[in-house]
């Protein structure tokens, strides 16, 4: 899908916030150091910031979709304190094997499939070829590549363990702030 706008797609758990397993309440949420600054830099460089997050905790019945939306509203309020914002959130509440009820399905939105990215591209007129994905898992990297984006792996969250599996050409950065600076450098934008 081609359109006019550049975006940076961000994985959530392990990339924006510290990986703690099925985070869904405000008291569990903790930004990876530098994450608000990274998002503010992306905002300032003119990128759409789109969070794309697999939420198998919904599929497993640990919490509902509204809990995810509440956490994202909390995240928005915390980011606003640093002058940063997320343009949109896309979540996959499904799991093909561990889901309960209607959430146990094979879907096109669960990363490594690119459904959340292509959906955002349609909804927001995003040029995927001019966009980036930053995440801490191979499933993030693969979703970005499948959508036609440039993917970057961060070493926070599961990134250290995933690093040996990264294909040639995928950039590896210490964290979201380092990855953001690399994206801005690649684009030739000043920070």
UniProtKB/TrEMBL annotation:
Protein name: D,D-heptose 1,7-bisphosphate phosphatase
Subcellular location: Cytoplasm
GO cellular component term of the entry, any: cytosol
Annotated residues for binding of Mg(2+): 11, 13, 136-137
Coiled-coil residues: none
Pfam families xrefs: Hydrolase_like
NCBIfam families: GmhB_yaeD, HAD-SF-IIIA, Histidinol-ppas, PRK08942.1
Residue ranges crossing the lipid bilayer per the database entry: none
Binding positions for substrate per the UniProt entry: 11-13, 19-22, 53-56, 110-111, 137
EC number(s) from the headed UniProt entry: 3.1.3.-
Positions bound to Zn(2+): 92, 94, 107, 109
Gene: gmhB
